[in-house]
Amino acid sequence: MTKHALLILGAPRSGTSYISQLLGTALNGLPRYSLPANVLNEAGFWEPARIVEIHDRLLTDIGLAWHSNRERDIRRLTYSQLQTYKAELWYEFSRNFSESYFAVMKDPRLSSLLPIWQMIFRDQGVWAASVLVYRPFVEVQSSFQRAFTSYADKAIEVWLRYTLDAELFSRRLPRSIVRYHTAMADWRYVPQKVAIDTGIEFHTAVKDRMHILETIPRRELRHFDQPRSSSVDEGPLHSLATRLEALIEAAAEGQLDISAMDAVRAEFNELVNLGSARAPNKVPPSTPGFPQSINS
């Protein structure tokens, strides 16, 4: 059983699937039972299907869904529910990564549910590090507009919630913040940066699997790089997202401003609580692939 986990965090449509495939291939740590590829991600999602289902069920039990803009507080679970979810998730983790020295695990929901995984790994003696994949919110919004028409106006809220949660909950882990565009330009940047930031040794793994890594598609994965030509929302959400982008960029260079990060989070939560930011409670029936197919 693996005692090492590399957790891929980030908002839906941010490039987490590509980074997961890249690092999972380099470390020979991809899940055994992944969600199948579909029209939303023809290269594959690279996330354990049953873990995605459990995550969705957990969110339902705390009154939320993957697209909700409110805080994910697992303290709303009863003790019995918490223990049941921990057992289920550990079983599925073990089933997917039993033959891997490093488990490379990804599901955007993981960004918000990291606290329960930290409990699990602490109980099981698993060392964990994280990779936060960053992509500009206007591109994520554009991807939502084309892939998820019914959710286009929720994209900034989703990006803010997932990015803020991923940043906050991964602070105590060895962490690397990876820029999606730099990864698209040169895949070698990813293992090099993750190695520097987390201490994970990639040199031998990358050398041994170079012939596979070179074949992973990149250019065709650049889904919707440019935003649609439309009026730009200059409201409070846009302002918060712009501030958060600048803070994430600085954090990627080792200049983490915790006070400023926490201020953005507090302001976003206040907007959500006041009802200025909205999120639908139900998945539109006309949208295929939900709730599983939210990922980049």
Structure description:
By secondary structure, this protein is of the alpha/beta class. It has one domain: 3-Layer(aba) Sandwich (Rossmann fold). It contains 12 helices and 4 strands; from the N terminus they run E-H-H-H-E-H-E-H-H-E-H-H-H-H-H-H. The chain has helices at residues 16-26, 49-61, 79-97, 110-124, 137-147, 155-169, 180-185, 189-198, 203-208, 210-213, 236-252, 258-274; strands spanning 4-9, 103-106, 127-134, 175-179. It has a 4-stranded parallel β-sheet with strand order 2-1-3-4, with helices on both faces. The longest helix is centred in the N-terminal third of the chain and has 19 residues, at 79-97. The two termini are 29 Å apart.
Brief overview, please?
By secondary structure, the chain is an alpha/beta fold. It is 49% helix and 8% strand.
Q: What shape does the CA trace take? A: globular
Radius of gyration: 18 Å
Care to count the β-strands? 4
The low-confidence runs, each spanning 5 or more residues with pLDDT under 50, are 279-296
Mean pLDDT: 84
Sheet with the most strands?
4 strands, parallel
- State the separation between the terminal residues, measured CA to CA: 29 Å
CATH level-1 class? Alpha Beta
Q: How would you write the strand order of the largest sheet? A: 2-1-3-4
Measured as a percent range, the helix fraction is: 40-55%
Q: Under CATH, the topology is which?
A: Rossmann fold
Beta-strand residue fraction: 5-15%
Return the string of H and E elements.
EHHHEHEHHEHHHHHH
Architecture per CATH nomenclature, i.e. the level-2 architecture: 3-Layer(aba) Sandwich
How many structural domains are formed by the residues?
1
Number of helices: 12
Structural class: alpha/beta
